[in-house]
Amino acid sequence: MGKKKGGVRIKQVGPKAPAMPINPMDALQIPEDEMVHLPPAPDRSYRIFWPLQETFTMDTTGFQVIYPSYLDSTKTIKQGRRIGAEQAVETPSVMDLSQALQSLHIRHVLQPYKGYSRDITCQWDNAGRVLVDVSNHTKKELMLKLAEKLPNLPDRIARMERLKLEQQKAEKERAEAMAEKETVVKNNVTSKKKGKKGTKK
Question: Biased-composition ranges for Basic and acidic residues (predicted)?
Fold first, then answer.
């Protein structure tokens, strides 16, 4: 049989298959440059010895733990406060404790990143604790002495003053924002009333 002549071949052309399967979630992904990258977690085992010359020789066997929450007047007994509210001070920091201990010449170890399991907020807010040599005091006596010292620490006074100014600034900004919002609402109501009067015949 001879070859057929004049035949036309029709090639079907359809959409090309994608090189990779399409992910429907791609459109919801946050671009790399807009992602929030959290800082690395601090080393919770980090320690600072006082006095510094005993960094490699201090034996902390028998040292007692004191957290800022023990002396914090803003905490309840359930949250870990260990002395009376009238004797406690407002939001002491672990650095406050260390400075007060230094003023009393008491050996201790500062652990700035330790959290207090009884107060979960201490994991991210006001973390830290001190290990204290209580060989010359009971723990309760020492906590009361620290509470007496804390209000007069120069660094603490400066820090509390900064916090007070920041709070006043934030309250002022909130009040201004509320006043501005109320003004906008009043203006909108007035404009609507005027518009209704203008349509009356």
Answer: 168-184
